[in-house]
Design brief:
Keywords: Oxidoreductase. The protein is α/β, with parallel strands linked by helices. The chain is built from ten helices and twelve strands. The strands form two sheets. The chain has a six-stranded parallel β-sheet, sandwiched between helices. It has a six-stranded mixed β-sheet with strand order 8-9-10-7-11-12. It is globular, with a radius of gyration of 19 Å.
Length: 298
């Protein structure tokens, strides 16, 4: 890659999220080229690549040889292994959340990314929304927030494009939507330092209580196995300046992904490897997820 050339990105995965967000986002961004697609299902990879005029890689190694960066749209356990190999090959990485199946795997990924000096971003799509950035900036300017609450309730596992996802059924709402909610509570109220309580019902309804650095506390309710339509996804904080809720706009995920790609391309162009949503953020969230899961299993 030379100065002024589009960033060549390879896409790993060809499932519903890759089709609806990753592939169109990469293909349509002015600073990025969707160069190649690789998936374990070769037919699915070819179908997706053909739509966006990209090449099909016959192996992950072949993909690495054609690109400057790799975007992952695969389950955490698969991503954790392949992303280490990508980073060690000197490729910048776009990582799905959670970044790994557990903390040790996430730590290995952080070591690979930092050791290689490559750029990384985690697809925490809500963070890249304009309304989220403005909301967080206003909270930071005012300060004095002592508590928060969040809900994410949907029927994503009952019907729709992600209802057949094995890893989502196995890992549930904590792994799928938990990173989004935990990330926003943490960003709004300060770093989460303890999972005070975590309860998971047999139908995968999660109730969580967090303690934040500085004394704030927050709660979260999560489920992707409820007949709720449309999805309920809200978050608010309260304190010395009253009550502030985050008003989510009905913006398609691909638009937020485009904002992520803006940041990603800028990081690589300037040689920057640190970002509020980089792989280290993914490790911080992984530690909270693992702590909540461990507490719920007691």
């Amino acid at each position: 890659m030379t100065s002024g050339d589009p960033l060549r990105v390879g896409l790993v995965g060809a499932g519903p999220w890759a089709k609806s967000v990753h592939a169109p986002g990469l293909a349509n961004h002015p600073g990025v080229t969707l160069t190649a697609v690789w998936a374990r299902r070769a037919e699915a990879a070819r179908e997706l690549a053909d739509v966006h005029c990209a090449a099909v890689a016959d192996s992950f190694e072949e993909l690495l040889g054609q690109v400057d960066a790799v975007a992952f749209a695969v389950p955490p356990v698969v991503q954790a292994e392949l992303a280490v190999r990508a980073a060690e090959a000197g490729k910048h990485v776009i990582l799905e959340k959670p970044i790994a199946p557990d903390v040790p795997a996430a730590e290995r990924l952080v070591e690979a990314v930092t050791g290689a000096g490559v750029a990384s971003l985690v697809v925490l799509t809500l963070r890249y929304a304009t309304e989220t950035r403005e909301w967080l900036a206003a909270l930071a300017a005012d300060g004095g927030w002592t508590g928060g609450t969040a809900r994410w309730l949907s029927g994503a596992l009952l019907a729709g494009p992600y209802s057949a996802s094995p890893w989502r059924h196995e890992d549930g709402a904590l792994a799928d939507v938990g990173p989004h909610i935990i990330d926003l509570l943490d960003a709004a109220l300060g770093p989460i330092v303890e999972v005070v309580a975590a309860h998971r019902t047999p139908r995968d309804l999660w109730q969580l209580v967090f303690a934040h650095e500085g004394g704030a506390t927050s709660t979260a309710t999560l489920s992707i196995n409820l007949p709720v339509q449309p999805t309920v996804a809200d978050l608010a904080v309260f304190g010395e300046h009253g009550f502030r809720s985050l008003a989510r706009q009905p913006v398609p995920g691909v638009e937020r992904y485009t904002s992520l790609l803006d940041d990603f391309a800028a990081m690589i162009a300037t040689g920057t490897t640190e970002h509020p949503c980089d792989v280290r953020r993914g490790l911080h969230l992984q530690r909270i997820l693992d702590s909540a899961l461990s507490l719920a299993m007691r």
